[in-house]
Amino acid sequence: MYVYQYMTASKNIIFRYDNTRHHKKLNLPNFPHHKHDGSEDNIISSNAPSLIEVLQEIENLA
């Protein structure tokens, strides 16, 4: 199991990658891997990113 979460100081989600099995009903192609993009409710399919990939994504947002 993994979770990578990036959020603002005021606790607004920017993104979160995880592989918890709570979105099976969405029939995501890479289930259970997924990304919450901008909010808890915006869920998209994703691969399992490495920590380096997550850190690069954060750096690219700046």
What does this 3D model show about the protein?
Helices cover 18% and strands 29% of the residues. The chain is α+β, with helices and mostly antiparallel strands and 62 residues long. It has one domain. It starts with a strand and ends with a helix.
**How would you write the strand order of the largest sheet?**
1-2-3-4
Q: Tally the helices: what do you get?
A: 1
Number of domains: 1
Let me know the number of strands: 4
Structural class: alpha+beta
Strand count, sense and closure of the main sheet? 4 strands, antiparallel
What gap, in angstroms, lies between the N and C termini?
28 Å
The helix/strand order is: EEEEH
Cα gyration radius (Å): 11 Å
Mean pLDDT: 95
Share of β-strand residues: 25-35%
List descriptors.
alpha+beta; globular; 18% helix; 62 residues
Briefly say what this structure is.
The protein is α+β, with helices and mostly antiparallel strands.
Element layout with pairings:
Layout lengths: L2 E5 L5 E6 L15 E4 L5 E3 L5 H11 L1
Antiparallel strand pairs: 1-2, 2-3, 3-4
